[in-house]
Each structure stands twice: as C-alpha cells, then as structure tokens.
C-alpha cells in the first residue's frame, strides 16, 4: 500500500551551517567541503543576482525565515551568520 516513506527528515541531524553550505553548493554544483566562509559570492563563486535570489528563496523555505531585500550578502559566511541568527 505504501510505496515509499514520506518522511523528508535527514537520517542524522545536520548543523545549520552544513545545511546552508549544502544549499549554496547545490546552486552551482560546488562541493560543500570546498566552500569557505570567506569566499566572495560574486568574485570567487561567480554567483549573479539570480543565483543569490534562488539561494535566499531556498533558505527561506528550508528554515522558515524571511530575508528582507536590504540584507547584504557578500560571502558564504554572511548567509551562515544570517540563517544561524534567525532560524528557529
């Protein structure tokens, strides 16, 4: 009757930082272990505005937060710090 488990929870809990890095790394198929918190989103990772908006939308969905338009994100660490500070 049940084709598959419906739970989407990870097998082992991940830290917020690990989850944020996974979301960022998925955007351009960068290995999460290669992401440095000091990496510039535009210069080092070559993300454009569309990439950043997509990352923000994914973070909002995953962490049930709202990111105001005026919040600046320049580095990977900026995303990690914001989500850590605002996630429930």
UniProtKB/TrEMBL annotation:
Gene3D superfamilies the UniProt entry points to: ACP-like
Database matches in InterPro entries: ACP-like_sf (IPR036736)
Lineage top rank: taxon: Bacteria
Name of this protein: Acyl carrier protein
Species this protein is from: Hymenobacter bucti
């Amino acid at each position: 009757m049940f084709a598959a488990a419906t739970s989407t929870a990870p097998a082992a809990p991940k830290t917020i930082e690990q989850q944020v890095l996974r979301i960022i790394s998925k955007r351009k198929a960068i290995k999460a272990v290669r992401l440095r918190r000091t990496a510039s989103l535009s210069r080092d990772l070559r993300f454009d505005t569309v990439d950043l908006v997509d990352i923000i939308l994914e973070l909002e969905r995953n962490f049930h937060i709202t990111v105001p338009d005026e919040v600046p994100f320049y580095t990977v660490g900026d995303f990690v710090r914001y989500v850590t500070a605002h996630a429930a």
